[in-house]
Amino acid sequence: MKPTISDPGRFALKNAVRAAIVVPAAFALGLEVFDLPQMALFGAFGSIGMLVFVDFGGTLRERFLAYLGTLLVGTLTIALGTLCSHTTWLAVVVMLLVAFAVLFAGIVDGYVAAASLVLILTFVIAAMVGADAGEIPERLAGWGVAGALSLIAIFGLWPSRPPDRLRRGGAAALDQLAALLEGMGATLGAEPATKAEEERLAERSAEAYEAVVAARNAFVALPHRPAGVGGRTAAFGRLVDDLDWFDALAREQPAPGSVSEGFASERAAVETRVPAALRRAAERLRANDPGDDGAELAGLAAAHRAIGRAFLAQIARRRPEDDARRVTAELNEAYRLRGLAFAALQIGRHAIQAAGGKAPPEPTLAPLPVGLREGRRIAGSRYSMRSVWFRNSVRGAVGLALAVLVARVIDAQHGFWVVLGTISVLRSSALATGTTVVEALTGTLIGIVVGGLVVAAIGAHTWLLWTALPLAVLLGAYSPRAISFTAGQAGFTIVVVVLFNLLDPVGWSVGVVRIEDVAIGCAVSLVTGFLFWPRGAADVLRESIGAAYESAARYLDTTIASMLGAARAAPLDPVAVEASEAALRLDDTVREYLAENGSARRDLDALARLVGGATRLRRAARLMHNAAGLAPLAPLDAHEPWVAAACGPFDAAWRARCDWFEGFGRAIAAGKEPPAPEPDAPERTAGPTSRLNRELGPMVVLDGASDGEVPPGLAIAWAERHLEGLLTLEPPLSEAAHAVLDDFAPRVLKEARTAAVAPAPT
After folding, report:
1. Across the chain, how many H-helices and E-strands are there?
2. How far apart (Å, rounded) are the C-alpha atoms in residues 460 and 457?
3. Which tens digit of pLDDT belongs to each residue from 132-153?
4. Phi, then psi, of 565 in degrees rounded to 5
């Protein structure tokens, strides 16, 4: 099959041109100007590492600090590797420790994850190319030259990043949601809509949903997604979760204007400010600029508070004998407006953070801890064999240490290629590793043939080798990004052949040495892959999805029980932490599963819906958790008997919802047929949706509540609205579960279905 070239905006070409300038310059400076081979070696490979193996995103300042941090840490790994270079057991042990530390630290921050390969590269070359401690300054000089020239090239030649497709996709979804809200308010909030208007609204709703799905799927497939300490990518991830949530709110049908007469001006303010805030958030994402850090959010927050106060004032005038349907309609509309305002506030804050700004504080949600304490918590939650990140860090560290041992025992001529061959092809499953082994060896063979022909044609003309070096670097840097992994291996092999013939002219045999060492490294990675979790991320994906739903369902159950003052309520914080940690492990597992070459047969949208469903469930619990701490709940026995009577249907919905999601998680974890949606779960439609119509109006009257207390009827009504929203998730989640189980557990699911329909023994 003919290889295709993919290079939007010619970013890969520009980066390759930078490498083609810097790598020969750093190499020549060490070899020709200072006549220091060690300086030349680390100058060349350091430049390759900085320009080809790592690519940081973010603002100019963030990128500069990330590259500077990589340079500083690289000095430590080079010095440490050099000190280990003459002692086999020490090199093996330190390789194990360094590799695990570097790989596992990536869980805290995406920049660390992105820099992991270049940091491992510096240690490997220093440890596998023997040198005395006195040569450390020479090596660090080469690394420093590589860093300085790389920074000049990165920020001097085409410093702007290509358009961020992730943020563009998120901005498009926000614009579509704003257009949908504007259309809903203009069409349904006043007079009955005509058929043509309803069809147009259905089209807008479908367009918004498709844009949200596209943004969500693009983010799910992102290779380095920090779980986080408040980074830009982590903030964009929270915004993606907000989009899915907001889409459901935006499609709720607004009530006629007569319903909200008691809070008409507050309603108008919310319906004006919410779409404007969405469009402003979209502008920030597209421009990658926080701008004024959310000046419009203060007005939106005021509108959010005002609609709540106005609704409470309206309800204060109601009595149980009033028209129950009218009061329920007011409750529905107030909930819709407050939900839209709150969700838009969250989106606005996360858009500012994703653009590199500092968002205003959240008045209603407890702030998320950030910094070192949160980083320790994130890392601590992964110290478990249930974490795919922990597993892969152990696997990578063991594979690299084994490669160092093998290279030292067999006395490989260029032992660092054994180690680099291991890390370049080691993936999270043996199947994927085997696929990459073939690609690596094929690319290396092609590179040997081409590089050998080049060296043979040039002969003893060293100046021609210097002429060929920039072209070889250009090809080696461009091909892995724009063509394929195999092409990248071929290009990189040509670079190695030319470099080592300049250091020590031995002709094409350098390539033969490289393929021998890469083959050994591939064998090591295959053995490691088979010994450690041969099925890779797929082995723990079902368990991770199930655990996320089960823990979130327990969090929801405990939150409602606590909010209503139930005696059986357990402490909230432990279940909240458990749900959060399960969500982080799921995020790691999904990302690793999608990165596997052997996982090409998958339904990305269905998998993203499952991940988003667990987030929605946890978010509903968290919102009630935080609200429960704002004011105490008035005792249930202080109210009219109808309050207790109303708790009966609510308790049934509460129990049914928690049981369904917990059973859903258990079924997925076991690879069993997921439970069918509850009988009254509504199917998703293309157009606007309406709330369920159980008459909850009388529950929200304020009789019996003291100042500063939340009326239990209002708390119950609010919780029921959350439960209704979760009910709408059941049909799409059930459908998504079947698609994903058919993808990664077809045999298990088939056996479960067969057992379910098998006739009972007689």
Report:
1. 26, 0
2. 9
3. 999 999 999 999 999 999 999 9
4. 70, 25
